[in-house]
Amino acid sequence: MLKRIDLGRDYKKHEQEYLAAIRRVCEQTAFSGGEFADRFDEEFAEFCQVPYASGVNNGTSALHCAMMALGIGAGDEVIVPANTYIATAWGVTYTGAVPVFVDCTPDTWEIDPDRIEEKITGRTKAIIGVHLYGQPFAFNRVKEIADKYNLYVVEDCAQAHGAKYEGRLVGGLGELGCFSFYPGKNLYAFGEGGSVTCRKKEYFDAVTTFKNQGNKVRYYHDVVGYNYRLEGIQGAVLSVSLKYLPQWTERRKTIGRRYLEEITNPRITMQAHPENTEPVFHLFEIKTPDPDHFIAYMAKRGIECNRHYPVPCHLQKAYADLGYQEGDCPNAEDLARHCVTLPLFPEMTDEEAGMVIEACNAYQEME
Ligand SMILES: *Cc1c(COP(=O)(O)O)cnc(C)c1O
Question: Do 305 and 343 contact (CB within 8 A), yes or no?
Fold first, then answer.
C-alpha cells in the first residue's frame, strides 16, 4: 500500500544524523528552550528572510501568540477563511475575540478577497490569511483591504514553509507569520513544534514573553503568560530537517506539477495556482463527485487517500453558537463535500507518482 504520507522513509534515510542531534541535546540537558531551540530560531528566521523567529510548542500556540502580540482580545473580531484547518480560528477564540468566517474562491480554494469587506465591522481588528495546501493566498488584495480599514494581516503558514508570493517568502508578508512543525508538515519536528516570524522587534518580544510564562526576567511576571516554549530536542531535530527542506520542497513541486499536468480525468478538479505564486504542495487536494467511492477505488489499487477537511470551520459544532448556517460559505462547503487528498511526500518515487496518476485517470464513477 502506498501511504498518503510516509515519514518513516525520511527517518530511515537520515537516522544517524537525527539521533546524533538528539544525543547532543541530552548530553547538554538543554531540554526546554535553551541553546538548540535558540539556534533553530536563528536558522529559521534566516530561512524565512525575516529578522525574527520565535519557536513555540505548536502551530496553534503560534497563532494564539500572534493574536496576543497584536493586542487582540474580548470584543474584537478577526476575519478567518472558512476553508482551513480549525486551529487557524482557535488562536482567535483563545483570546476571547470572535472569528468571522469568509468563503474561499471556487478556483484557488483560498480566502476570497471579494467576500472580506462585507464581513468587516467596527470591531474587526485583523485578517488571518492561510496559505492553504502550500498555495499562497492573494496577499496583495487582502493587504489592500486591510490597509483601507486599518487592520492587521497575519499569515497562517502552517502548510507553506518556503512558498513564495510575487517572489517573496511567506512568513514575511504580513505583520506576523505562524508556522507549525507538526509531523507531516513540510518541515516537521519529532513531536510538536511551531514558530512565529515577524519583522518588528516589539512583536518578537511580546511573543517571547507570552510563550515564556509572561516573564522577561525569570520569576518576574509582567503579564499573564503561557508555557508555549519549543523543546530543545525539537529544535535540534528541526535544525537537521531545515537543511533538507529545500530539496524536499523541490520533490514536492516536481510531483505536484506532474499531477497538475498529467491528471486529465474530467471527474477530478484541481486547485488553481496563480502565476504570481510559487506553491510548495503540502496537501494535494482534488475535488471529485463522490469522495468515499474514490477513496475506496484508490485503496483497491493500493493507494491510500484521505480527506482534508470534511467539515468547514463555520459549520463545526464547536462554533455552533456563532450561528452560521449551511449555505453561508458555499464554496468552502462544496469543497468539504468533495475533497480528497492524494499521496504526496518528498520520498515518493517517480513510479509511485505515476501509479497515482494512472489510477486517477482510470477512475470512473460507476466502477
Ligand atoms: C497544522 C495547522 C495548524 C496548527 O498547527 P499545530 O502544530 O498542529 O498546532 C494551524 N493552521 C493550519 C492551516 C494547519 O495546517
Answer: yes
